[in-house]
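Researcher: Please predict.
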Amino acid sequence: MCGIIGCVSEKDCCGALYDGLKRLEYRGYDSAGIAVLGEKLSVCKKKGGVSALSCFFAQGNTGIGHTRWATHGAPSDTNAHPHRAGKIVLVHNGIAENFSALKAELEGAGECFYSETDTEVIAKLISRAYRGDLLSAVKEGLSRVEGSYAVAVIAEDRPGELVAAKYKSPLVAGKGAAGLFVCSDIPALAGAADFIARAEDKDFIRIGGGRIEFFDENLKPVSRTFFRPQKELFALSVAGGGYFMRSEIAEIPQALGRTLCALGQADFAPCARALRAAKRLFAVACGTAYHSALVFADIAEASLGIPVICHTAGEFRYRPPVIGEGDVLIAVSQSGETADTLEAVRLAAERGAYVIAVTNIGSSSIAALADFCLVMRAGAEVAVAATKSYNCQLLCLYYLAAQCLFFKEEKYPDWFSSLNLLPAAAEEAFSRFSEIDGLADRLKGARAMYFLGRGLDLCTAKEGALKVKEIARVFAEGYPAGELKHGSLALAEEGFPVVCVSTSGRLAKKSENALAEVRSRGGYCALFSQYEEVLSESCADFKCLLPALPEALMPAVSVIPLQYFAYKMCLERGYDPDKPRNLAKSVTVE
């Protein structure tokens, strides 16, 4: 889950590398480093964020950079990338799963290691293979590596040349007036590259002589298509409070509007036959995306009357193989590079299932593997905790469920026409934020809390709990309101906070029963509902009226106050909401 960048330009590249790393920092921020090759090789690597490199400058037109999320070895100057072995310097995103055996072998051959990382092993392997041909050396060295990697490599005696390679970790190449690049992610090349090409697994890339060349695993030249990326992926602006997370919450109405427009223009005909004939639907995702998949499962199953089976992608891969021909897999991933989801897609495709992807990046690996792809238009999302992408995922999945029903029964769900109301309802939800400020202040000292819900509200409760865990560092659990009395009520005591989402008229009294059980034991209860009568009849200490929409669509709006609540809790507790401890944005390792 690190970020890598490499550059060959006609002028000094140090500034371009630093700027790219700042835009990649959401992929890891416990250490960073840059290596620049000109008349001499200069390397700077530091524990801490990319800003720790702000005073570094070196002249040279060839360079690589790295921002780290630690896997092997604690964050430190020594463990930071780039890593060097002989004339070879490299940066790496991924995991060398067999590094222990390789390290023991290399130590037995007389090699000395200075870091605790798996990456230094790769540097040693390439260095031992290097005899003046950098491309061949990278291929030979990586042939011993098991696991995943995206690497960018330079050789001290080869200024003007850079070699990169990819396997199960994202990598793109870009070109523009600022130079030629390789990078983990498209947004990092904003302002530097006008055209982007996505590398495929086992690709090698060589940059030099003003050209970007792609090679397959046998080093035979191959062609990859360059394209202009979605312009909104380059729009990394911070507004309202100085944090990306706050800015991205503020962008939810606009993001929903863009996604609505894109969905209205989408051609669903290519997937019509698969959806019409589907015996079962499977939905897989991780983290926040998994909660959107849970909403889809409830909505689609209720509309279609066929089984919808939802799994976290990492578990789906290792379950008995029940998916096959005639089934449809919906894979949800903001980045389109989530490692477990990507492997679940590969597994489903191998077994003959039809794969539909929902992602924010149309040029991503998951999008490329899918039979059909819905590209949401959330725009670049930098804060590690997903906000606007979740709302847009829900919108895409609502649209997909509606199309499923249309292809089967030639009608749309009753709520379909109300999808156009989502941007305005999201905007209206912002007016509740001043109330949420008081709730966050009241609960900032909590050590733990429950988020309760039933039906679709349980999905929202799980997402609200995840946000609080991610950025406020408070243990929180999203829990079915009806299950509280079956064990978890034992934790309820004086002041224990419980947040309940209750947007189903049919289930409102059932959820209220759970609040009453907590309240009678001295707990502090907060209730969110779009029904004034539900709020007025509740025993809750804090009550928030949500914008009103058809109940099926409420998860896209009821989550917004919870997103903001987690953000305010984070600030109240003195943390950075954009950079939660131990986490990174795009999870590209298992």
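Model: The first strand starts at residue 3 and ends at 8.
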